[in-house]
């Protein structure tokens, strides 16, 4: 009996020790550069390194430890890392990048046939290193960040405590990039739709286009290209992520809901304004009336509205066009004409609709921005109208039934901007996720070194693909 207990205990301990992974950083820099930069520095935010190179390595090891304590693999994960000159300007920079060095398919125990898996995950699934001669992940980071001409004056924050102020937190960027290397990416070309060597990525089995009901593996190249730019309609169809989203993402998403006429009824993505009242629930419902003050059919609202336009929008939700003057000037004019809300139609193609900048404490009506394409469809639907009625009713508000960053069925939206952003599209969460997620395409300042619920969806997604 004692013997049996001892064995059981040993097994339990053994499986406990597997509930983690070891991630080692392989320093690929030449002498004097990157991790080997001897420039003396002062310890910062729990990072005790006294050279720039040592602090960089400590930050890498902190991010490696975070992923290591989260993941489950008995094969050490090796990250070959270097610091290099990456594209940058004074105001924009590639912070770093990472990806799997090798991919494998149809190995014994693969949870999905005919699917590429990154090397680190393959190793986990088969229980040994599929190619001991090659590291698992390749990471490159921007050695010039903060230097003149490259995000001038804003270097990486190398502390480990996330107290980065206005600088970019290196540990956060590393957590993001390591996730890509672990498999948070498709190996399919998001610009051409082409599969890697004719085999889909495990990722592609979970990318669902809600307008066609097809996943990426059921599509041809052209269909994949088309679905990669369907902002708001490309979702992650994985049970781990969908369940976790109920905990991680906040209830309520700002949205335009067109109630009637039926041919355009539905929900539309919006950009929200930096001024005016935040969208709320139940929000503002009303008849939508366009302002027309600029031939042939634009309503710029850059000057006080004419009597005709004033009669059209009074007590209604005004629809106006972006351009010529500031948002604040336009909204002031329609507010003074008696509108109860405003929809601004973008004047350049693209999706999702960006936010609306500006400041004016005197604006008291809700304002949203919609895409040019959506605006044209809505205008078309009310092209025949009277001077005071369009018959289109809509709500500007927060839909509490939809979490911020999911579709109405609770599936997490993937980043699918129009035009396509090669390398960013479809391999990130959508930017509408609230609170901000680690795997959005840009690093937000409020991220908190978390990779799993209740804060983050990254680890549930890796579990969906087999981790
Ligand atoms: Zn990324």
UniProtKB/TrEMBL annotation:
SUPFAM superfamilies in the record: PA domain
Limits of the PA domain: 299-378
Keyword Secreted: no
Classification via InterPro entries: PA_dom_sf (IPR046450), PA_domain (IPR003137)
Alphabetized UniProt keyword annotations: Glycoprotein, Signal
Coiled coil: none
Gene3D superfamilies named among the record's database cross-references: 3.50.30.30
Signal peptide limits: 1-19
Source taxon at top rank: Bacteria
A Pfam match: PA
Name of protein: Peptidase
Organism: Duganella dendranthematis
């Amino acid at each position: 009996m004692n013997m049996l207990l001892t064995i059981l205990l040993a097994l339990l301990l053994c499986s406990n020790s597997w509930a983690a992974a070891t991630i080692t950083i392989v320093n690929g820099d030449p002498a004097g550069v990157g991790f080997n930069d001897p420039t003396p520095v002062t310890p910062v935010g729990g990072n005790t390194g006294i050279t720039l190179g040592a602090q960089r390595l400590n930050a890498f090891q902190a991010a490696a430890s975070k992923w290591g304590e989260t993941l489950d693999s008995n094969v050490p994960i090796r990250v070959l890392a270097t610091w290099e000159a990456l594209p940058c300007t004074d105001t924009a920079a590639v912070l770093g990048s990472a990806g799997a060095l090798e991919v494998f398919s149809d190995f014994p125990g693969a949870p999905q046939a005919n699917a590429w898996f990154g090397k680190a995950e393959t190793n986990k699934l088969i229980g040994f290193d599929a190619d001991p001669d090659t590291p698992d992940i390749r990471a490159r980071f921007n050695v010039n960040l903060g230097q003149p001409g490259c995000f001038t004056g804003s270097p990486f924050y190398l502390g480990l405590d996330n107290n980065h102020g206005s600088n970019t937190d290196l540990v956060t960027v590393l957590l993001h990039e390591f996730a890509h290397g672990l498999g948070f990416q498709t190996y399919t070309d998001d610009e051409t739709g082409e599969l890697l060597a004719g085999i889909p990525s495990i990722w592609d089995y979970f990318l669902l286009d809600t307008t066609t009901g097809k996943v990426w593996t059921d599509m041809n190249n052209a269909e994949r290209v088309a679905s990669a730019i369907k902002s708001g309609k490309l979702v992650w169809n994985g049970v781990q992520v969908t369940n976790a989203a109920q905990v991680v993402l906040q209830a309520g998403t700002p949205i335009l809901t067109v109630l009637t006429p039926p041919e355009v009824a539905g929900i539309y993505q919006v950009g929200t304004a930096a001024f005016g009242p935040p969208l709320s629930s139940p929000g503002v419902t009303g008849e939508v009336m366009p302002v027309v003050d600029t031939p042939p059919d634009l309503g710029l609202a850059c000057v006080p509205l004419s009597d005709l336009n004033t009669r059209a929008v009074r007590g209604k939700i005004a629809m106006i066009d972006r351009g010529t003057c500031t948002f604040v000037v336009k909204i002031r004019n329609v507010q003074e004409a008696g509108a109860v809300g405003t929809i601004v139609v973008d004047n350049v193609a693209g999706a999702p609709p960006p936010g609306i900048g500006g400041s004016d404490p005197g604006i008291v009506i809700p304002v949203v921005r919609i895409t040019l394409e959506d605006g044209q469809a809505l205008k078309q639907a009310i092209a025949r109208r009277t001077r005071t009625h369009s018959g289109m009713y809509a709500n500007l508000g927060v839909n509490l039934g939809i979490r911020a960053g999911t579709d109405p069925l609770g599936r997490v939206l993937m980043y699918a901007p129009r035009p396509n952003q090669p390398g960013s599209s479809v391999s990130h969460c959508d930017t509408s996720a609230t609170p901000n997620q680690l795997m959005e395409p840009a690093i937000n300042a409020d991220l908190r070194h978390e990779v799993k619920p209740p804060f983050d969806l990254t680890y549930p997604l890796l579990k969906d693909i087999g981790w």
